[in-house]
Amino acid sequence: MRVLLTEDNQGLAQSIVQYFSEMGHAIDWVDSAEKAESILAHDTIEVLILDVNLPGKSGFELLTSLRSRKNSIPVLILTARAEVDDRVSALDLGADDYLVKPFDLRELAARCRALVRRERGKSDNEIHCGNLSFNSATKVVKVNQETIELRPREVQMLELFLTHLDRMLTKDDIANRLYNFDEAYTPNAVEQTLTRLRKQLQGSTLIIKTVRGLGYLAHVHD
Amino acid sequence: MSMIEKLLALFSSSEEYSLRQRMLTRTALFMCTVLAILSVGVWHYANTSADYSYDRLLSSASVTMLDGINVAKNQVHIDLPYSGFEILQLAPDDKIYYAIYGPNADFLSGYSDLPVKLTDQKTDLMEPHYVLHTYKGKKVRFIVRQKRLSERSVAGNVTIILGQTTLARDTQMRDTLYAALTTLMVVMGTALLVMWIAINRALSPLNWLSSQLNTQSAMDKQNLPTTKMLEVAPLTQAINDYRQQWLSALAAMRDFIADASHQIRTAQATTKAQLEIALTSDNEQIDKNTINEIYKDHTKLTRLTNQLLAHATIVHRGDRQTFSVLAMQKILQDVITQAVRDYAHMDIEFEYVPPLQEVEILGDELVLKEALRNVIDNAVQHGSHTLNTSAIIRISLHHRQENHQVWVEDNGPGIPENMMNKALERFVKVGSNTQGSGLGLAIAQSAALTHRGQLSLSKSELGGLAVCFSFPHITDANDV
Amino acid sequence: MFRIAFACYLIFSTLPLIAQESVLRLYSATDISAIRPLLHEFETLNPEVTILYREFNTQELYDELLDPTLPPPDVVISSASDLQVKLVNDGFAQPIEDVPDVSSHQPWAQWSNELFGFTYEPIVFVYNKEAFHNRSIPHTHEALAEQLREQAKFYQGRIGTYDAASSGLGYLVASQDEVTFSLTGRLQESLGRARADIHCCTSLLLTRLTTGDLVFGYNLLGSYAMAKAMNNEHIGVIVPEDYALVIVRSAFVHRDAMEAELAADFIAYLRSSAGQKTIANNTALMPLDRTLGSHNDPENQLNSSTNFHPIRLGPELLLYLDQHKQTQFLNSWSQALGD
């Protein structure tokens, strides 16, 4: 994972750089939007961590100019502003995620990984979620490098969850994906498939939560 | 650039202005307009009435004079009566001109050079008509009247043209006009004076109020003296209420700052002490446990700061300008999804009970989400998640007759009923868990209040605490 | 019918005219001898003014103004009120301000702010004292009419009056007689039967009365008659007791006056108390201010209880100037007087 950190607070930046380096991620740090722009122009960066309050050009301005140039690099915004509106405008301007200072470094790393994962999943066949990997071409599922045998419906369900991480899926959403129009299914069928899938995935970092009355949500806890 | 445009510009300018002056000027302008309109009317009336009276003189004099025109010895015989001229004596200073024409428009007597044309003798037989001409350098009002002679020898119309200068007529017209105008002016002047007095009287309470306010300090707890003026009483009442609100808000702020200082400084003191101990320790290797303690305390401090800021934000976003119509189901789903994601690693079961029909309220989305999140966080903090049983958090939305309700329930130990009121106060921690800041419920209550709703606590059927937000229906919210 | 017209230039001041001097041109139907003291006094009050006075017969004055042969006057004075009114009515006058009122009870002595009366001259009977020795003198119109009938021989050819046809004043008096007195027609007939002698001017009539050619003068101008009677014991003056017409001599400023301001001053002077006193004490005329009386009226007949009928200055005087009315009146007048 190649990360570019744009942050003008030296202390915070150094901590983040140290944490990410120890995690084995390549991270570059610049303290202004202008410098970030020049790096983005030449190097391949997988995720951009962007502080809003920067000397000179603000983080929002950089984000806006990136998006206007059709640059789709995942961007995670850091904001310290008290106004909650900042979050909304960040997302409106095309940020992929945001964190409000102060935050846990662990949380920051996890969010970055999720962004990279989502981006890679679009191009690669291989999806990595913590200790779980899934190849969408061969439909091979591995937990801790060990292949796990899954039924086709379970694979379909897993793929659905992996492509919709951290999002609420209703029972209907899942059923529509798992069954054709003409296939009759009982409401319990989805539940049963999920129970089996959970059992198979025990020990993985993928958690599938059931929210009664609302649906299901998959989350990678790493 | 006309005068009127300048005046209009004066009125529409955004500069400071005097209410008294503006009212007076506008009234005066209005009255001048009325006066101008009335003056035209009066002028017309004066003219008409003067014409009417003096035309009658001309008319009767001409009739009398025509009486003196007869046929004698087969020709027109003119013997003008003295009375005809005497009638015109009623306008004593005016000059008289006349001409008499026979049946064939032949000049018989009088002035042969009058500027009046003889009308067609066949039409205008009996109806006299009046014309105004200038003759010998004077304005002269003429009457043209005819009389039919129908003797065998002389048949046809004799015409008399009788003119009189307009001195008396003009004088009467002027007198009428001036009398009417004087009356009008006096009435208008009186009206303006009354207006001026009335405006001064009406504005005097303002002076009284400002003098009252000037003598008091803004922080004065004393109310303004009561007034007997019914119209002013609501204003003093409003000022008193406003001041009381300010004072209580100030007091609340003072308490808040004291509380917040206490909380933050205590937490800071803790971490600072721990850090000092760690630094002064003889051990070169810092004890991991100490760091852990420091981290935990710092996390608490962070959370406290966040909540304090959130609380302050909610309280100050209380103005309704940012309110919009919100679909509560969508908001709840967002909040729950967020919570489920954030607490995915914990053994917590979330439940959502949707309403039977759509629920919409008028509110501030961000404030609501913040408040709901805080209540959910509170439930997570205080919920029961031991090894054996998983914690349950149930969020339900209800469409009730009188209001909308959002319930957040948990199966934790809950709060004893006698402590429930206390739990809504800031920084009050109830129960065994000391992780909370004591602000979560206070934030939720502030949010509920800014939405003109309520927050109430009760015991949940799940066993733990039930927090209920109630919001008014949109129509009710608008009414208030 | 004969006319006497005399025009005379009278320059009171023989000094050469200096630049600042102004000339006030008066055209007047008044005996110069009767008005001279007034002119003198005005010249004394206004030393820089020279008065140019031209005397006319009333009718001549009227004709001259209608069809001028001379330069326009500044002030026009005449006792023929009807002609004056006609001139003013036809725009020959100009309005003037600040002319004093002689008395507030005499609105008839002024027309508008153009024509101003300044004398009060009754129409009187004049008789030859010798002729009426031991005879009763008629003091009313009715008495005269009766005497003319009863003593026709006495009056035959020896009674004189104005010529209404040639004298403006005569026409005015005759026509106003008709308006005022219902028996005028009868009186005229009687005069005609008595072969009354008609003349254009008061002075001629008075001369003939003094000489005894005439014994009675009917409708003579009281001012001249009284002035004459003061110096002549042959004639006596009677102000008729039933009614007496009063002629108001009037003046106006001519439209084309060269010295309009001076002209206005002159008229104001005529009506001022100084002017009125001069009229009362020094002239043959009689002042409009009746409290002053006249030095020519020792018997104070002017303030007797006689029914005075001042001829009002006003547009109604135009009536007898109407062409038809005039013709008819003169026709009947001539017929009655058998001329």
UniProtKB/TrEMBL annotation, chain A:
<dbReference type="Pfam" id="PF00486">
    <property type="entry name" value="Trans_reg_C"/>
</dbReference>
<feature type="domain" description="Response regulatory">
    <location>
        <begin position="2"/>
        <end position="116"/>
    </location>
</feature>
<dbReference type="InterPro" id="IPR036388">
    <property type="entry name" value="WH-like_DNA-bd_sf"/>
</dbReference>
<dbReference type="InterPro" id="IPR001867">
    <property type="entry name" value="OmpR/PhoB-type_DNA-bd"/>
</dbReference>
<keyword id="KW-0597">Phosphoprotein</keyword>
<feature type="DNA-binding region" description="OmpR/PhoB-type">
    <location>
        <begin position="124"/>
        <end position="220"/>
    </location>
</feature>
<protein>
    <submittedName>
        <fullName>Response regulator transcription factor</fullName>
    </submittedName>
</protein>
<dbReference type="InterPro" id="IPR001789">
    <property type="entry name" value="Sig_transdc_resp-reg_receiver"/>
</dbReference>
<dbReference type="InterPro" id="IPR039420">
    <property type="entry name" value="WalR-like"/>
</dbReference>
<dbReference type="InterPro" id="IPR011006">
    <property type="entry name" value="CheY-like_superfamily"/>
</dbReference>
<keyword id="KW-0805">Transcription regulation</keyword>
<keyword id="KW-0804">Transcription</keyword>
<keyword id="KW-0238">DNA-binding</keyword>
<feature type="domain" description="OmpR/PhoB-type">
    <location>
        <begin position="124"/>
        <end position="220"/>
    </location>
</feature>
<feature type="modified residue" description="4-aspartylphosphate">
    <location>
        <position position="51"/>
    </location>
</feature>
TrEMBL record, chain B:
<feature type="domain" description="Histidine kinase">
    <location>
        <begin position="259"/>
        <end position="475"/>
    </location>
</feature>
<dbReference type="InterPro" id="IPR004358">
    <property type="entry name" value="Sig_transdc_His_kin-like_C"/>
</dbReference>
<keyword id="KW-1133">Transmembrane helix</keyword>
<dbReference type="InterPro" id="IPR013727">
    <property type="entry name" value="2CSK_N"/>
</dbReference>
<keyword id="KW-0418">Kinase</keyword>
<feature type="transmembrane region" description="Helical">
    <location>
        <begin position="177"/>
        <end position="199"/>
    </location>
</feature>
<keyword id="KW-0597">Phosphoprotein</keyword>
<keyword id="KW-0808">Transferase</keyword>
<dbReference type="Pfam" id="PF02518">
    <property type="entry name" value="HATPase_c"/>
</dbReference>
<dbReference type="InterPro" id="IPR003661">
    <property type="entry name" value="HisK_dim/P_dom"/>
</dbReference>
<dbReference type="InterPro" id="IPR036097">
    <property type="entry name" value="HisK_dim/P_sf"/>
</dbReference>
<dbReference type="Pfam" id="PF08521">
    <property type="entry name" value="2CSK_N"/>
</dbReference>
<dbReference type="InterPro" id="IPR050428">
    <property type="entry name" value="TCS_sensor_his_kinase"/>
</dbReference>
<keyword id="KW-0472">Membrane</keyword>
<dbReference type="InterPro" id="IPR005467">
    <property type="entry name" value="His_kinase_dom"/>
</dbReference>
Automatic annotation (TrEMBL), chain C:
<keyword id="KW-0732">Signal</keyword>
<protein>
    <submittedName>
        <fullName>ABC transporter substrate-binding protein</fullName>
    </submittedName>
</protein>
<dbReference type="Pfam" id="PF13343">
    <property type="entry name" value="SBP_bac_6"/>
</dbReference>
